[in-house]
Amino acid sequence: MKIVRERAELRGIPVSPGIVIGRAYMVDRRQVHPPERIIEPGEVEDEIGRFRAALATTRDQLEQIKQHYQDRDLGDHGYLVDVHLLMLGDRMIVQDTEKLVREGLHSADWALWQVLERIKASFDAMEDEYFRDRRTDLDHLGDRILRNLTGLQHEALSTIRAEVVVVAHDLSPMDTAQMDVRRVRGFITDLGGRTSHTAILARSLNIPAVVGLENVTQVANGGDTIVVDGLSGRVIINPTEAELAAYREKKARYQVFRRELEALAALPAVTRDGHKVRVAANIELLQEIQNLRRYGAEGIGLYRTEFLYMNRDRPPTEDEHLGTYQKVLDAVQPYPVTVRTLDIGGDKMVHAVPTPDEVNPALGLRSIRLCLKERDLFKTQLRAVLRASAAGNLRVMFPMVSGVGELNAAMEVLDQAREELQDEGVPFDPHMPVGVMIEVPSAVVIADLLAPHVDFFSIGTNDLIQYALAIDRGNEHVAYLYEPLHPAVLRMVRSVCEVAHRHGIRVAVCGEMAGDELYTLVLLGLGVDELSMHALSVPRIKRVINHASLAEARELVTGILDLETASEVHEAVDSYMRSRYPGVLDPMEEGWGA
Ligand code: PEP
Ligand code: MG
User: Fold this and answer.
1) In CATH, which superfamily holds the domain spanning 271-277+452-588?
2) Model confidence, pTM
């Protein structure tokens, strides 16, 4: 029978840039559903034996996957295997299944299936996101045990032979651990967002990916030709000849574009009139560090450490923190690594650190406020940061500080950590630079009071814009008011830079503004000394800096500071950039959020 390959087009979230045209490799996530089977009393012990053997095989497989993560230094995801291992020993799963076999005379497959369904139903009844995540874990684990029990092959991801686009409902770290990723040319999934496992893996491997496509697994068939546009989020299944030709051309243009940019990566970021700007990277996970040198990042300007606390039941121990920081420092040296202390609450929830249900979480018990309430948790991280500073170029900064009182309280905990380590004879760098993020408007206004206490400022424009303009940064209804070039934002950045320079300290910007070339000259002209962004954006921003002069940047800023509205400023900056630097505001990566 000939398969009719129909054309279809879907839109999702582009999470890793680039274009790929390839054959679909479907990852079948359909659940194993064993038939109901009643056994003879004489078969009970055999069934129990079979069940225990399947559990043992499952344990072996999980241990192997865990080893695989450790060998490839993908430790951040190894904890998910631990969750599966923990569930595997769960009394409910093991004892209840055996009880159903013994007392109900059900086959082991059927008994296990029933037990799993019951547990999942109780998870479904709970609203907590944590339990929804655990349900997915239980689905994946249950499927693995059932496949081992029934002799069905587990997903044959290890058998990918040709170069393919992997099409999946969702991919667990366990799936990708088994994949020969060298043959994977693209990822597309029904589920997922910018921080889903697939997105992070794709970015760290430089494989184009689009997630959140909702139903691509129903629309695509194995062997279909697929175009993945990781720049715009467009996915075409069985494209027309004309579309194929257009995409081949776009792919070639993109490759030239990236090659040209990457050739610039190794250059220092210096303006034509000799002004040096530090261009650093933002990272969330350890896996991302492998890209930093390739893209020419001069260290890490923002390490969002809250990702160390995610998808686990307990916060990381001091030694876990330390091990991770040391790996990051080793990979980046001699450049500095700026560790931002735990910044959760608001839109970043972490099960390992419970936060209260709040009517207005963006203004609630989050970030530094939470750390100052949970001082032991905070001190654990600070001790690890200090210990890591003994042998590396490490800086630490506190997020969401709204005033000197809060900063002093954070410094007090840092001092306690220092004293403890001193008493214990554990080495650390007593001069480790300490900074504060400027992302609450009150911090802008009292920047002169904060400056004498710290070694640097880092402006978090994502939150600063949200709080200054009263725009929820995640709310699509008011997204049109989220304007980085609002005159109030420009004045705040300028005033922070002036105050900082008067006190002899440097200012970085580590919000998304730093990674968009439209804003580069504006930020330099306002006095910003360092920019930190997604690593992929580094070459693009270096290119702007290398083309420009500080004098021009200042001239541009002088021309826009008196404008009244964000749209006037936007228009002025856009036309200045396009006339002075034709081609620099390249549309090639537009749509791909950094
Ligand atoms: C910011 O607010 O600009 C920032 C860099 O921090 P985050 O996006 O993690 O809140
Ligand atoms: Mg922030």
Assistant:
1) Phosphoenolpyruvate-binding domains (3.20.20.60)
2) 0.78
